[in-house]
Automatic annotation (TrEMBL):
Assigned keywords, A-Z: Endonuclease, Hydrolase, Nuclease, RNA-binding, tRNA processing
UniProt keyword Hydrolase present: yes
Keyword Hydrolase annotated: yes
Organism: Ignatzschineria rhizosphaerae
Broad EC category: hydrolase
Protein name per its UniProtKB record: Ribonuclease P protein component
Molecular function terms from GO: ribonuclease P activity
UniProt gene name: rnpA
Length: 128
């Protein structure tokens, strides 16, 4: 079960990591989320297990959600959904952004939206 944890190596940590995804990406969006996806480059045969791990970055703005409780709820839902689907998303850097139309009232709709996004991403971007 250790591979299902959301550890530090599965997160986008630096501004450079985020910038790389913002510059060249595939975009998936709906009413609740905008998801940017970028494949990580593979150089030679040194594509280690660590580099094949998908990495997630979150952008949930205070502008859209004034209450910290709401921002934290959205982030928890995104991280949990990513954690459960990470095995299928290997080799991808992903930034999930909430939108102004995202509603925290319907948690099931958020889960369903993310589920559809992961399916599209896996279908479109594949895995290494």
């Amino acid at each position: 079960m250790k591979e299902l944890r959301f550890e530090r190596d599965k997160r986008l940590l630096t501004a450079a990591d985020y910038s790389a995804v913002f510059e060249k990406n595939r975009c998936f969006k709906d009413r609740a989320f905008l998801i940017l996806v970028k494949k990580r480059l593979v150089e030679g045969e040194d594509f280690t297990h660590e580099k094949s791990q998908p990495r997630l970055g979150l952008a949930v703005s205070k502008k859209n959600f004034k209450k910290a409780v709401d921002r934290n709820l959205i982030k928890r839902i995104i991280r949990e959904s990513f954690r459960l689907h990470q095995a299928s998303l290997k080799g991808l850097d992903i930034v999930v952004m909430s939108r102004g139309t995202t509603s925290v009232a319907d948690r099931a709709a958020l889960h369903t939206s993310l589920e559809r996004h992961w399916e599209k991403i896996i279908e479109t971007c594949g895995q290494y």
